[in-house]
Structure formats: C-alpha cells, structure tokens
Specification:
The complex is a heterodimer of chains A (1168) and B (222).
Chain A: H1 2-42, H2 47-60, H3 63-80, H4 83-90, H5 102-107, H6 110-125, H7 127-139, H8 146-149, H9 152-163, H10 167-179, E1 185-195, E2 208-214, E3 217-223, E4 234-243, E5 251-258, H11 265-275, H12 277-294, E6 300-308, E7 317-322, E8 334-342, H13 347-369, H14 382-395, H15 399-414, H16 421-437, H17 442-464, H18 473-493, H19 520-543, H20 550-583, H21 587-612, E9 622-623, E10 627-628, H22 637-661, H23 675-703, H24 717-736, H25 741-770, E11 775-777, E12 782-784, H26 788-810, H27 813-824, H28 826-876, H29 882-901, H30 904-931, H31 936-953, H32 963-975, H33 979-995, E13 1004-1012, E14 1015-1024, E15 1037-1044, E16 1067-1075, H34 1078-1082, E17 1087-1094, E18 1103-1111, E19 1128-1131, H35 1141-1148, H36 1153-1165
Antiparallel strand pairs in A: 1-4, 1-8, 2-3, 2-5, 5-6, 7-8, 9-10, 11-12, 13-14, 13-19, 14-16, 15-17, 17-18
Helix pairs in contact in A: 1-23, 2-24, 3-20, 6-12, 6-13, 7-9, 7-10, 9-13, 9-14, 12-13, 13-14, 13-15, 15-16, 15-17, 16-18, 17-18, 17-19, 18-20, 19-20, 19-21, 20-21, 20-22, 21-22, 21-23, 22-23, 23-24, 23-25, 24-26, 25-26, 25-27, 25-28, 26-28, 27-28, 28-29, 28-30, 28-31, 29-31, 30-32, 31-32, 32-35, ...
Chain B: E1 9-16, H1 22-31, E2 44-53, E3 56-65, H2 72-75, E4 84-90, H3 94-98, H4 100-110, E5 121-126, H5 139-148, E6 154-156, H6 165-190, H7 195-205, H8 213-221
Helix pairs in contact in B: 6-8
The chains are: A alpha+beta (1168), B alpha/beta (222).
Bound molecules: guanosine-5'-triphosphate and magnesium ion (MG).
The site of guanosine-5'-triphosphate has 23 residues of chain B, from helix 1.
Chain lengths: 1168, 222
C-alpha cells in the first residue's frame, strides 16, 4: 500500500515535471515572441509567417476575415466598375433614354429598335384621331367620381399638353368630338399584310405604311405603323371607321405609302436618338403627327386599293387587293385586308386605341415628372389616371384587357426608358390567372409574348449587371428579386412559339434547340455566365498594366481569384436563395461552374509556363552569411516561387469552395486537377522552404545567448527556434495539402532529407559558434576549460535530433502510407515505408555523428592539458604530489561540468571518447618515453595516475567499449615493472597459455605436488607422447625442476630426474623435496617450472623438449602423503612468439644485461 | 541502420528507363535478393550499404528512382548533391539504351552540374543473363557511346544471376575517387587561395567524413 502510494507519487512528480517543462517552454516562447522571433523573421520578411497566416485563414474560414475581404473586394470592384454607370448615378435628374443598359442598346439589333419605332409611329400617325377620341372621352365622362376628382377643363388642358396639340387644332378637333355621335354602324378593318410591294428607296426596299379613309371623308385618316425596310410587311392592325346612312355607297381607300423616302426611318431615328430622352421622343411623335395629319409629308405613294363598301358581304371577308397607281401600269403589290361590319366599337380596335393613348400619356408623364430610370411604377397623375380610366370604362375594356394593354405599352417604353420591375411583376401577377385559364384570343396572346420579348433584355441585363457597385446593394437585390419573379411568371406561362431570344439580339445565348428559343432557364444561365465573363474580362483588362513579369502575372491571377471568391461568397450568401426560391435555379452553382472553367483556362497555361521556367534553387550554393552566390539579380527565384505558391493556395481555396458547392459536378470540373499544373513547382517550393529554414537557423544561432532557457531544461534558444523552423516547414507542407499520394510520399522523403540537411547545418553553426570559447591563457598556463556554452551546443543539437522522429510523424507519413496501401497494395506500401524509415534513421544517424564530432572536438581541446598534466605527474610524482591533484582537479572540473550539463547518453559518449583519446595519448607517451629509456618508475607513476583517474570516473569493469584503455593500462603496468618482475611476468603469461592446451606435439607430463609447511614436495611420475628428438625416433629425456621468479630462489637447488633412454613414454617415478624459507613460501606468484629435456650424448648440449608450470597457489597444502593425492597431467609447451607486452617491454630495455640474457635464452626455446 | 562510425558517405542515384532493372540491381547489391515480379518504383526508393574498397569502408546512400515518365517531377529533386549517377539500360531493350542520352541530360540539368569535367556517370547495361538472341545492344555499342560522351566507366551486369552487381558499385566508387583526386589536383594547381572554400564545400557534402584519406589513397594508385 505504502509502496503503491510512493509509486504514484513518483509518477505524479514526473508528470508534473513534464507539464512544467512544456508550459515553461511555451511561456518562454511567448515571452520571446517580441525579441528573438521577430528578429529571426526579419531574415526573410516573415516568409513562413505569411504562409502560416494563409493557412490559418484557410483553416478557420473566419467570417470576420471573409467580410473584411469582401469589403476590400467591394472597394476593388467599385474602382473597376465601368465608368459610365457612375456618371449616370451622379445625374439622376436627367433620366436618360438609353439606360444603364447601355450595352444592351448598343448590341441590340435593328429589329428591336424597329418594333419600338413602329409603336410610336402608329400612335403618331393617328394622333388626331386619338386626340379626338380622347376629347370625346372627356366630354362623355361617366361615373360618379368624376366631379370631385379633376375638373373637365384640367383634363382638356392635360390632354392637349400630352398630345402636344396646338390651340387651333384643338378647337377644330374639339368641334369634331362634340359633334361625334355614337355611330350606328362601324366598319372594322384589319390591315393584315402586303406582298411584293414596289421598292421606293435607294436600297431596293421600302418603309411601307397604310393610310385608310373613306372617300366621303378624306380628312379623317387612319394610319398603320411603318414597317421598315421590307417589301412584304405584316401589320395585323385594327381600325374602326364609323359610317352613316349616306355612306352606303362610300368607298374604303387603302393607300400604301413609302415613309419619307428622302430620309429613311432609320435615319430619322438615328438623328433623333442623338437627342435622347423622353422629351426627344415626345417631340418626334409630335413632328410625325403633324406631317401625318396634314398629309403634307414627303412620303411617296406606292399604290392604292379602293374597295366600294357595296362589294363587302355583311358577314365580312378577307381579301387580297391589287394596288394601283394613277397612270402607272407596273405591278405595285398586293394588300390583304379583313373587313367586317359591327354596330359598336370592336374590342380589338378599342384595345389598340387604348394602347396608343396610354403610350402617349405615359410618355408625357415621364417627360414632365423626369422620373429616374427603373423607378416609375404606374404612379400616374390624377389627370392621366382619370383619362385612362374613362377610356377604359367607355370602351368597355375588361381588367385583363387593360392589364394586357398596360403590359404591352410599358414593355415598349421600358425598352428606352426603363420602368420599375415591380410594375411588371405586379402586372404579370394580375395576368397570370387569366392567361392560364381564360380563353384569350390569339392576337392578345401574341401581344403578350411580344411585350414579354421586349421586357426580357432588361431583365437579363439586371442579372448580368448584378455586380454593379454604384447603386446601393439593397436596390440591386430588390431589382433582382423582382426580375426573378417576372421570370418565374414567364416560365409558368410558357412555353410559347415566339422566339423570345432571337440570336441576333442575344449573341451570347447558346441555344441548341431548333425553332424558337423560349428556354428561360437556359437564357438565365447564359446571362449569368455572360455577366460574370464581362466582369472578369474587365478585371483582366485593367490588370495587365503592371508589366509582363511572371510575378505580376501571378499576382494578377491571385487577385482575380480573390475577387471571384468574394463574388461567389456573395452569390452564396445573398442571391442563391432568391434564385432558388423564385426560379428554382442554382445561381451560385451555375456561377461556380462558369468560373472554374475560366480560372482553369486563365491559370493553367501561365502556371505551366512559369513552372517550366522556374529557376532552380541550389541550396548547396548557399554560403552562410552571404546568401546565394551567383544569384541573378533580375530573377528572384524566391519571389517567383512564393507568388506561385500563393496562387496555388488561392486556387486550392477556390476548389475547396467548389467541392462544397457542386458535389455532384465536381468530378467533371477541369480545375479539380489543378495541382498537376504546379507539379514542377513543388520541388522549387521545397527548395525555398529549406533555403528559408537555413537562413533562419543561421540567424537563430547568431542570436542565441547560450544560456539555459530556464532552469528545467538544458538547451538554449536556438534549439527551440530551430524546432519552430522545422514546424514551419511542416506547416508549409500541410498547406500544400498535395492530393496525389505518390507525390506526397516522394515529397516527404525529400523533406526529411532536407530537414536532415538543416540539422547538419545547425550542428555546424552551433559548433562554429562555441569554437573559440573556453580557452584560458595566462602567464602560468594555457588551457581549455569545458564551458556551459559547449555543453549547451551539444545539448541543442541533441534536442533537435530527438525531435526528428516526431517531426516526420507529424508530416503525416502514416496517412500517406495508408493511402498507398489502398492504392497500390501491401508490397509497395512496404517498400515505401522501408524507404522512409531508412531516410529517417539515416537522418538521425547523420545528426548523431555531428554530435559525436562535436564531442570529439571538445575532447581534442581537453587532451593537450591532460597530456601535459600526465607528463608532469609521471616526472614529478614523487617530489610534488600537487601535480596529481592539479590533474585530478582539471579532469574533475571539466568532466564535472559535462556530467551536470550533458544528458547521460552524451556524457557516456564523451567519456568514452575521453578514454579513447587518453589511451592514444598515453600510448604515444609510452612509445616516446621508451625510446628515451625512461626508468620503470616513470611508467609506474604514469600508471598510478591513470588508475587514480579511472577510479574517479570509470568503473573499469563496465568498460566494455574501451578495450583500448585496458590495453594501455596493461602496457603501462608492464612497463612499470623491474626487469626481474618483468621476466616473471613472461613466465606467468606462459603458464596461463599452456594451461589452455588440449593437446601438444611435445607430450604430456604427470606429477603430484604438495606443500607441507615451508617444504615443497614434487613427484615426477611419467611422461607420454614426448616429441621425437633423435633419428631413431626416440628421446632420451629427463625433467629439471626450477622455482620462479628466479631471483627469489637464487639459493635453492634445481633438481633433476634420471635420464630415461630411448623412450617416448618414460617412467620417472622420482620424488623431490625442497625446503623454502617462510618468505619464499609466501611469494605471491611463485611458480614451479618442470622443464623436459633430451640428454645429449656428450651431456653438455641438452636439447629442450618442452615445459610446464605449476602455480604455488594451485599446489595443495596438506600433511597427507603424496601418494594419496591425485595425479596431475599437463601438456608440455614452448613459447611461440615475442608478441606479449612483457616481452616487448623487455626488448625495449636495451641496456639491461639481465633482460638481454633472458631474451637470448627465450629465443632459443621458441619453436623453430 | 547505419552505425555511428564515420565512413565517407556517397550519394548514388540510379537512373534509367522503367523496367530496366534498377530496383533489382539495388536489391541484389544491398540484400542479395532478386524478385522476378518486381513492381515499378513509386517516386524513389532509398537504401544504405557499406562497401569496402582497399581497406576503406564507404557508406553508399542509394537513391533508386522511378523510370516511368509520369514520375519525372518526383524524381528530379533528388539528383542534386549526388556523387555518382548510374545510367542504366537493359541489354535486351534498344530503346532503353537510346534513352541514356535523355537520362544524362536530365541528370546534368537537375543536378546543376557546374563543371563539365566533373561527370559522375557510370553506365550499366543490365540483364546480361538474357540469351544472345534477345540481346539488342552489344558491348561495343555501349563502349562507343561512353567514349563519345567521355564516360570512362561502363559495365554489363545481371541482377538476376548476380553477376557484376557488386563490381558495378565498386567501379562507381572508384570512378568517384578518381574524380575527387583529379579535382583536388586541379584545385591546388589552379589557385591556392580557393583551397579554403573548397574544403568548406567538401565537408559540407560529406558531413560525416573525417579526413579525406580515401582520396589520398587513390593518389598513389594513379
Ligand atoms: N533477365 C533479367 N531480368 C531482370 C534483371 N533485372 C531485372 N529484371 C526484371 O526486369 C523487371 C523490372 O525490374 P525493376 O528492377 O523493377 O525495374 P526498374 O528499372 O526498377 O523499373 P522502374 O522502377 O519502373 O523504373 C522485373 O520483372 C525483373 O524481374 C536481370 O538482370 N535479368
Ligand atoms: Mg524500380
């Protein structure tokens, strides 16, 4: 229980410690933000930070930011919005005839203009007739509301103003109106069409119109509209002529005229359009009216048809009439008319009349009120309202008919002076049900669709001009809403067989069907595209100014995409719901579909081209402190690459938007593979990132104060900075969000390799930074002290190395491998994984080597001082014991610093290097001093010193990795021995060696031995398989017993056995007893040497067969008799080489007689 | 895993058409294995291998690239900083031999080779085990092409039968050693003051190589 608590406590502490460390690090980083960070950023103007912020933006999709951007974009767009619109906005006082739809009017074809003209000409030509009718209406006001509304006089004067009738004419027509009675009989004439008319104009065509009147009343003329530039006009216009009793014998005259051949309608209108405005329009009407009424026009007669009323059947008829002209025999064409009789005013005639009146009055109203375009909403003055209401009432027109008339008239006027869209949507709302349910005659239906056709251009224009920035947004949105309502009604009422979108009028509409186009949705789609396209073109045109460098090109594209994005944003936020609600149309989606194609075609070629020509950045050219050498100043590869990356991100965001917006169509979008355009650029971006990282690392090292960040960690600022830089590279990689898996995998391999380069560079910079530190030089000495800075440098590099692996994990390696698994299967996945792992471990190793290199540098700096102190110690050890203290102090201090500052791994590593270098140094010392014949005491002192040092810092038993030091220590020990000890050392070595024999060519010997007190007893029993020593294949052997070391047993005899002749298996069976002094008995490494020799015939040149050693400590101490003890068998051996430390030491003692003699004997023993 | 012993590091890049056997060569060299049904390499593959030449151990860092055209932009970033480039073709595929020119150019462009005499190329004709009927490129053709392009080292190998594979890599290293020593001589002859910068550059590249003993060794051979 207690133990458990202790454990958790411990863990708790550990956790706390860790947390503390992290929070401190964070805190520290936070505090530093202002100082070091910003200074590091200064290196490259916040390169990564810029990228980082883009990233954040992308991640958060922060609305605030979006709005801000939108505002910015709005401003931008306002700047680039076409100028003329602005001007218009500034002068709302003079409502222009040609409205905001300037483009529409310029691109609108003649036919539309003609329609418009026809209406006005028709009204103008019949102005007297209409005016008379108007007066008649005023005279015969009906209803109770008349009196208190507007007085009759006011109405007369209003009508006179509106119709622009001079006083004299007014009086004249007033008379007519007053006398006018309800006709008993009416002849209804529909002028349908003419064919093969004679050409009157220079262009081989005519501008025909028809004048009709009764022969009895030539001054009462009616006119059709003028059909321009045609020889086969279609009028389909209705007229009602009153006939009285006496006119039964009357004749109906139909004259076909060519309008003012000296000046075609077009020319006349051309002139007149220069005047512009409703005012000019009214003026023209008046002008034409005068000429028409007086008949004093320059028009040229084409032909006449005279129809006696008596020839017309009561049921009416439709006939082709041949046109004649006095004195002319050539054919003048044929005219088709429908004639019928009725007793009241025909509805169609009334409608036509009403339309003419409404038109004239509206023109007048507009002229007087100067109402702004898109504003008028059927707010007539009371007079006008009354006149029209009265006419409706008196001609018995239904509400539907009136609405239809209004719709038709307004649509006509709207073409030149735009009226409120709300007006139309309201009218349509009124018309919707009647048109759907009531049986509407074909002509009215045609009228409706004609009017609709006139209305549509302005509607689509609103859609196209949705980005107009001058009007306030609310107005635009309201207009759009009304337009959408209008379109919805039209869609509901359709389809029709009228071509609503004649291709000459809408060149931008792509209609693939045959026959009339009344595909509103299609037109809408095209209008949206066209509007977006025009807007985009405008941006592009205005952006090309700033030079043709690739950077400006890229910047332009980036800006363009930003504008597009905010346009889409607005589409999504505001318009989309209108479109969906009203016309069930996916506005934003349609817009996106258009934009993505444009963005793709605009960006792809430039991107590919720029990528292809990207200057490669060679990081190996990078020289610290200088930047790149041989840098071409005209092309900054960094700026180019950076801009390219910005564009990549811009498109990426754009594509992401599309993914959400059009999930179904996304896969068919060309832009979805945009990354392929940038393929070549990625390598450059990686290079740039590394380049920037290298720059920043350099700066970080420079700025590093080389103090602990805080008391809990053992590294300094540049380590953390470097790590931050790595994570900036990572951020860059995340931003890139490369969609292609194979590319991802390869790029990651490259990034890891690059980061390794950065690490190595960091290690180098760090090493260079501390290189000069720690050197102390004064009058007494020159030495190197390990400083905290050195340790920090080492720790820093290690810190960075440790982060390599987690860093690579954070690059998303596992994810990518998973995708490779899905895409390619386990074999490839394994290959890729292996590759990445190898690259990572390589990187880690390389950095570890850099650390080792630095450790070596430290040690190399320490070694001279240590060497000096060692020599001093060896020389002066006996006289001056301070020496050792000084050495110990030096080692203690420096290793102490290393021990406290470095982590365990690195401390152990440096210790090993220290011992390694030390043993090298000592070996060198030994060599030099042997040459100089230094006495064994020198080596002995050196040995002592070393042992002392090792004792402090090293447990020799766990010194597995530094055998060198063991060896050195051994060499030193041996050399420190006196010669006789050294000789014994040789024997001891031989004893060890022989003990390991498992067989021998020299034979085997059996013996027993024991100590009894200070007496040693040795029984030599026998030998077997002795080496053959003479030609007969036998040996004559004996055994001699030596006690070693020799100088200790100088007084002791060396007994031998008898010689046993001619046998390889001698049975000696002799026991020897030797008495020793107690001191001799106690000699630590005492040996018994059994030397087997071959007896020479003459006895003085005995041959050596072999030998074996018995250690004193192996000999049992017992009072038992020898025969009770077990036999001991040992293989005989001979020395084989000089290759031992002791022998080498002996050899080096050239002046030593004892050594010399021993060596001479020893050489003889060596196997030949 | 590479030990922390400090051998000279050499970056080797293997180039050549897809399917000539680059990956097989590397695998034979590094792990003495051969895979009859080797897949096309994705982007790059990377392996380490130590190689002893005249008592000195070199660590080869081998980048095996993907030969298929679609990987072009993925492999080219790895060319820079390489010490040796193995141009590989298959002797039973004339086209792969013809393409050597393209590979040479691609490497020179992306590796940003500055000095023309510093050509770290070695030409390897793989699949030498195929029957003589299947052979489409003769040894003579290979040698002629090499001469024309001043490439001094070329060899025919078979990853399948393990013939000449280690030799090819040895040859590559020896070739590099020759270039290095020549470069050193040039340096010192041309201008003594450049020496310092050159050293910096050198140690930059061979980050873990202490002392240029290797280059020195070769001096005596010449
Ligand atoms: N006969 C023969 N076939 C070989 C030899 N080396 C490789 N192959 C075969 O050639 C095919 C392609 O070998 P790879 O090593 O994958 O080719 P690669 O050059 O790496 O191709 P990429 O990775 O696409 O660039 C495999 O089916 C191998 O079995 C060879 O020495 N002799
Ligand atoms: Mg391969």
């Amino acid at each position: 229980m207690n133990q458990l608590r202790k454990r958790t406590d411990l863990l708790g502490i550990k956790l706390l410690y860790k947390e503390n460390r992290i929070s401190k690090l964070l805190k520290w980083n936070g505090n530093r933000k202002k100082s070091t960070d910003s200074r590091i950023q200064q290196v490259d103007n916040g390169f990564f930070e810029k990228f980082g912020s883009l990233f954040r933006e992308q991640a958060e999709m922060a609305q605030a930011r979006e709005q801000e951007e939108q505002q910015h974009v709005a401003e931008l767009a306002a700047q680039i919005a076409p100028k003329d619109e602005e001007e218009k906005e500034e002068e709302p006082e003079t409502p222009p005839l040609v409205t905001a739809d300037s483009e529409a009017s310029s691109s609108d074809s003649e036919s539309e203009k003609d329609d418009f003209q026809a209406d006005f000409l028709a009204a103008a030509f019949n102005i007297d007739e209409l005016y008379t009718e108007m007066l008649y209406v005023i005279l015969h006001n009906v209803g109770c509301d008349v009196a208190f509304e507007v007085g009759q006089t006011a109405l007369f004067s209003y009508a006179q103003d509106a119709f622009k009738i001079p006083n004299s004419k007014h009086r004249q027509l007033m008379d007519v109106a007053e006398q006018k009675e309800d006709p008993e009989l009416i002849i209804n004439v529909e002028v349908i069409e003419a064919k093969e008319l004679r050409a009157k104009d220079a262009n081989g065509l005519s501008d025909p119109f028809v004048t009709l009147y009764l022969a009895s009343n030539t001054s009462h003329r009616y006119n059709t509209s003028v059909k321009t530039m045609t020889l086969n006009p279609i009028w389909e216009e209705h007229f009602a002529l009153a006939i009285n009793d006496k006119s039964v014998n009357d004749t109906l005259c139909l004259e076909v005229w060519d309008f003012d051949p000296a000046e075609t309608v077009k020319e006349k209108f051309g002139k007149f359009f220069e005047v512009k405005g409703v005012k000019g329009m009214s003026k023209l009407v008046k002008e034409i009216a005068v000429t028409a009424a007086t008949g004093q026009h320059e028009n040229e007669l084409i032909g006449v048809a005279k129809i006696p009323l008596s020839t017309i059947p009561a049921s009416g008829m439709t006939m082709w009439y041949t046109l004649d002209k006095k004195n002319k025999v050539t054919r003048r064409g044929v005219l088709k008319v429908r004639i019928s009789f009725s007793s009241g005013k025909n509805n169609q005639v009334a409608g036509q009349e009403h339309r003419h009146m409404r038109r004239i009055i509206l023109l007048h109203e507009l002229e007087v009120s100067k109402v702004a375009p898109y504003w008028w909403c059927e707010n007539f003055t009371p007079q006008a309202d009354q006149l029209l209401t009265q006419h409706v009432a008196q001609s018995g027109l239904t509400q539907t008919e009136v609405a239809l008339c209004s719709y038709s008239v307004y649509a006509g006027i709207h073409q030149k002076h735009p009226l409120s869209f709300g007006l139309f949507s309201k009218l349509l709302e009124k018309l919707l049900k009647p048109l759907q349910t009531e049986i509407i005659n074909e002509e009215d239906l045609k009228l409706f669709w004609e009017a609709t056709r006139k209305l549509l251009p302005s509607c689509l224009s609103i859609i196209r001009k949705i980005r107009k920035k001058t009007t306030n947004e609310k107005t635009i949105m309201k207009q759009v809403m009304e337009v959408l309502k209008i379109l919805n009604y039209i869609i509901t009422l359709g389809p029709t067989d009228i071509d609503l979108f004649p291709s000459n009028l809408y060149p931008w509409i792509t209609f693939h069907g045959n026959g009339p186009n009344c595909d509103i949705q299609g037109a809408l789609r095209d209008a949206i595209s066209k509007g977006a396209n025009d807007w985009l073109n405008y941006i592009i045109e205005n952006n090309t100014e700033n030079g043709g460098t690739s950077i400006s090109k890229l910047q332009n594209l980036i800006q363009m995409i930003q504008l597009i994005r905010s346009d889409l944003q607005k589409a999504i936020e505001y318009y989309d719901k209108f479109f969906i609600e009203h016309v069930n149309f996916q506005y934003a989606k349609c817009l996106y579909t258009f934009y993505q194609a444009r963005v793709a075609t605009l960006c792809e070629p430039d991107v590919r081209e720029i990528c292809k020509n990207l200057k490669t950045l060679d990081n190996s050219d990078y020289k610290f402190g200088e930047g790149f050498v041989n840098e071409d100043p005209t092309v900054d590869p960094l700026a180019e690459g950076t801009s390219l990356f910005e564009l990549y991100l811009a498109i990426q965001r754009f594509v992401t938007l599309g993914q959400g917006l059009c999930p179904a169509d996304y896969n068919s979008f060309h832009i979805r593979n945009f990354h392929q355009w940038f393929h070549v650029g990625v390598a450059t971006w990686l290079d740039i990132a590394v380049y920037k990282a290298l720059q920043r690392i350099e700066k970080a090292v420079e700025l590093d104060p080389l103090v602990h960040i805080d008391s809990t960690v053992k590294y300094s600022s540049s380590a953390v900075d470097t790590l931050t830089i790595f994570y900036q590279v990572n951020t860059f990689w995340q931003q890139l969000n490369w969609p292609d898996v194979e590319g991802c995998y390869t790029f990651i391999a490259k990034i890891i390799d690059d980061i390794c380069q950065c690490c190595v560079s960091y290690a180098k910079k760090m090493a260079a930074r501390v290189d000069g530190l720690g050197h102390i030089e004064n009058v007494y000495e020159k030495k190197f002290e390990v400083t905290t800075e050195w340790c920090l440098a080492i720790n820093n590099i290690d810190y960075v190395r440790e982060t390599l692996e987690p860093f690579t994990r954070d690059l998303g390696m596992e994810d990518i491998l998973k995708k490779i698994m899905e895409l390619k299967g386990p074999v490839d996945e394994k290959r890729c994984r292996d590759t990445l792992n190898t690259v990572i471990s390589n990187a880690i190793d390389t950095v570890r080597n850099a650390i080792v290199e630095l450790l070596e540098t430290v040690v190399n700096k320490m070694i001279p001082s240590m060497k000096r102190l060692l020599i001093e110690g060896a020389e002066l050890c006996d006289q001056d014991s301070n020496c050792i203290d000084r050495l110990m102090m030096y080692v203690d201090e420096n290793l102490g610093t290393l021990n406290t500052e470095l982590n365990e791994e690195n401390f152990n590593r440096i210790l090993e290097i220290v011992w390694e270098s030390l043993s090298e140094t000592i070996n060198e010392l030994i060599r030099n001093n042997l040459e100089n014949r230094r006495p064994p005491s020198f080596f002995s002192n050196l040995h002592k010193t070393l042992i002392l040092m090792l004792g402090v810092y090293k447990d020799p038993s766990d010194c597995n990795s530094c055998d060198a030091l063991k060896r050195t220590e051994q060499v030193l020990r041996v050399n420190a021995l006196e010669t006789s000890d050294l000789i014994h050392e040789v024997h001891l070595e031989l004893a060890d060696k022989f003990d390991q024999f498992t067989e021998s060519p020299y034979g085997e010997i059996s013996f027993r031995s024991k100590f009894d007190g200070d007496t040693i007893q040795i029984e030599v029993i026998n030998a077997r398989d002795l080496a053959v020593m003479d030609s007969s294949g036998n040996s004559d052997s004996f055994v001699r017993i030596h006690l070693l070391p020799e100088h200790e047993f100088a007084n002791v005899e060396k007994p031998k056995t008898k010689t046993h002749h001619k046998t390889l298996f001698p049975l000696y069976d002799e026991t020897f007893t030797i008495n020793l002094t107690p001191a001799q008995r106690e000699i630590e490494n005492g040996l018994v040497l059994l030397s087997v020799k071959d007896k020479d015939l003459l006895g003085y040149n005995n041959q050596y067969i072999g030998e074996t050693f018995i250690r004193f400590r192996d000999i049992p101490c017992t009072s038992e008799s020898l025969s009770e003890l077990p036999q001991v068998k040992k293989w005989l051996g001979r020395p084989t080489s000089f290759d031992t430390d002791a022998l080498k030491a002996l050899e080096s003692r050239q002046g030593d007689k004892q050594a010399k003699e021993f060596l001479k004997k020893f050489k003889n023993k060596i196997t030949p | 895993m590479r030990s922390t012993t400090k051998n000279p590091l050499l970056k080797v890049v293997i180039l050549g058409d897809g399917g000539v056997g680059k990956s097989c060569l590397m695998n034979r060299f590094v792990s003495n294995q051969f895979d009859e049904h080797s897949f096309h390499t994705i982007g790059v593959e990377f392996l380490n291998k130590d190689l002893d030449i005249e008592g000195q151990t070199y660590t080869l860092q081998i980048w095996d690239t993907a030969g298929q055209e679609r990987f072009k932009t993925l492999r080219t970033p790895f060319y820079r900083g390489s010490d040796i480039c193995m141009l590989t073709y298959a002797i039973d595929d004339k086209m792969s031999f013809k393409n050597l020119e393209m590979w040479r150019k691609e490497f020179a462009y992306y590796a940003d080779l500055k000095e023309s005499n510093q050509i770290p190329f070695i030409v390897v004709g793989n699949k030498s085990d195929v029957s003589s009927e299947a052979r489409e490129v003769s040894q003579l053709e290979m040698e002629t092409w090499c001469n024309e392009n001043s490439i001094t080292s070329c060899i025919e190998t078979s990853a399948k039968s393990a013939s000449n594979v280690e030799e090819a890599f040895k040859m590559a290293v020896q070739h590099w050693l020759r270039l290095e020593s020549r470069a050193d001589i040039n340096e010192t002859h041309v201008n003594d003051t450049v020496d310092l910068s050159k050293k910096i550059g050198d140690s930059n590249r061979m980050s873990c190589c202490v002392g240029g003993g290797a280059a020195g060794d070769d001096d005596t051979n010449n």
